[in-house]
Amino acid sequence: MTGAAKRIGLEVAGWALLIIGVLAIPLPGPGLLGVFAGLLLLSSQYEWAEKRVEPVKMKALLGAAQGVESWPKIIASVIAAFLLAGAGVVWILGPDQPSWWPLPDLLWLPGGIWTGITQIASAIFALGFIVYSYRRYHGNDEEIQELKDRVEALSQKD
Questions:
Q1: pLDDT per residue over 118-134, tens digit each?
Q2: DSSP label at 97?
Q3: Which of 70, 89, 120, 147 fits a 20 to 30 Å CA distance from 127?
Q4: Separation in Å, CA 24 to CA 29, 41, 143
Q5: Per-residue pLDDT at 29
Q6: How many domains are contained in the chain?
Q7: pLDDT value for 44
Q8: Cα(37)–Cα(27) distance, rounded to whole angstroms?
Q9: H or E segment at 101?
Q10: How do residues 62-114 score in pLDDT, each as one tens digit?
Q11: What distance lies between CA 42 and its chain's CA centroid?
Q12: How many whole angstroms separate alpha carbon 96 and alpha carbon 87?
């Protein structure tokens, strides 16, 4: 692969991951991870992206740490992941639109099977990330405080 083709490929992939990550932030799943991955790829081309890689990484790790601080948070996260997987199964099965559905037909389970597949993949990723976060951060108050301090220091830098 030539240098120009590689640069263009990395840039396209970076922008795609960044946009998908931003769109996925309100959903359970890898939204911040997508933003981080996109910024990481774009950081080789753009100074503005390079400046944002570390703050996004620290915020994502702090979010992971805070998500396993208590059992209610852990249980809620696990339930949300299973609900997401269940929604993915519904999307894959694609039941007919019910008679009570008040919106236009095209808004009933938009995206079809691929939406269901990505929902299930996101749920699997979320469960894996919950396990990782629990093993790394649960009961580790010193590391959580260190993350908080790093996030605060980075936010004061900007």
A1: 889 888 988 998 999 89
A2: P
A3: 147
A4: 7, 18, 27
A5: 55
A6: 1
A7: 86
A8: 17
A9: none
A10: 888 888 888 998 999 899 999 999 999 999 998 999 999 999 988 888 888 88
A11: 18
A12: 15
What would the two tokens of residue 39 be?
């910024």
What are the tokens at 135?
Answer: 């093993």
Cβ(37)–Cβ(17) under 8 Å? yes
Cβ neighbours around 116 below 10 Å, total: 20
Residue 59 pLDDT > 80:
yes
pLDDT of residue 95: 92
> What confidence score (pLDDT) does residue 86 get?
95
Closest CA to 154 of 14, 34, 45, 60: 60
pTM of the model: 0.69
**25 neighbors 31 (Cβ within 8 angstroms):** yes
Neighbours of 136 (CB within 10 A): 14
What number of other Cβ atoms are within 10 A of residue 70's Cβ?
11
Number of other residues whose CB lies within 10 A of the CB of residue 144: 20
CA distance 81 to 147: 25
- Structure token digits, residue 99: 């008679």
Q: Domain containing 13: what range?
A: 3-157
Output Rg (C-alpha) for the chain, integer angstroms: 19
